[in-house]
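Workshop exercise sheet. Pairs work together: one partner reads the sequence aloud, the other fills in the structure field after running the prediction. Swap roles for the next sheet.
Pair: D.N. / O.F.
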Amino acid sequence: MSISIIRLRSTQMHQASLLQKCIKLLKRKETNLFGEMGSLGVSCCFETNRQLGSPYEAYTSPAAHAIRSPASIGAVSRLRGASGGTGNGGQTAGGHSGEAKTVYGFSTTRQLLEALQRDAQLRRICGWETARQVPHEATFSRAFEEFSQRQLPQLVHEALIRETQRDRLIGHIARDSTAIEARERFPETPVKKDTRPAPPSSLFQDSALPAAPPPTQPAAPPAPRKRGAKPGRRGPHKRWKSGKPPYKPKAKTRLERQRTMKLPAMLADLPNQCDIGAKTNSQGNTAYWRGYKLHLDVADGQIPISAVLTSASLHDSQVAIPLATMSTQRVTYCYELMDAAYDAQHIAEQSRDLGHVAIIDPPQRGRQAKDTFLPVKQRELSWAQAQRYKERTMIERVNGRLKDEFGGRNVRVRGPAKVMAHLMFGVLALTVDQLLRLARSS
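Structure field:
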């Protein structure tokens, strides 16, 4: 019994420590470095107590990052105004509460509010002194909606990655996607126009009156069949002047268009509505889910670098070039590790143009006949590539931790913007946790 109590106490202390570190990313500190990202005014703060001369110097000192956009400040100030508090310290209470919901594993906002009412330590960490200052559940919902529209968690995570990984040369970036189940309806297909004939007027008459019998007409004899080929659905063959149809150039695929597009245009071109996704597991069975798909780039040390949310039905290869472009803008790395779903010529060429080496697991296409004597030659990785490809397992561990420990399996919001904000709060907490682990191990 005492061992279970000790484990519970250690887990609670770790959650409180992790929450305090995450909240430091959302607080405003003394030094502000103002920048411009899109249409939002962003201020980032980074401070270190000492220079250690190691690649993990930012992890071992209390680093603080703050991203404050006008809309986000307005959302959290309404949170503070609803509770009757004042001051700049309370303006980020909404972001603190969102991070606390992820770190402590609360599935709903109501569970978070109940914890804030009974736990004084958690309440003070989030920025409220008394239980009466905690806003209503509807106020949290409105603030979270503005956070999601302005992409506050994405901006905080990007600033954290840029500051902590700017002086580090990363060896490998593992890329993969994971299924995100959602509780919402996906858009239905448009209803086709009804071409059936209207019902006879006798159906709308009083049922007590007997309906007149329909007039009987003799069936028309079938038309005699003409000689020649049997006509198909498209009718007779069309004769062209040159003997063949005119040449029509094929439309460019999405991968071809992405080679010449900017990152905002790539992300806007990807579908992100809720729909049905299918994936074949390791046993060969096809699993279906309703919701979305989260694509991640993970660096050595299980640190998430970039994230993109798309529809569940979108193929993984369609997000490879946007993820590579996003990760290249944030960090410096050498190798890209991808599974057989990313085996495409445009992906390999774009990775080479960006200065990286793509190691893609060769797909097993086709089946070998049983009566053949010589085996069919399949493309294989070299010994060095196979050793590097083993590092790709870190993306699977990150996906598992995101779902089991940081709310990736408990999505209770609707819409791609809110789902992405919910997931990015978890990605942000996971990133801070991994940075703390690296700091302790170094």
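Discussion prompt: The chain has two domains: 2-150, 169-187+252-413. What would you look at next?
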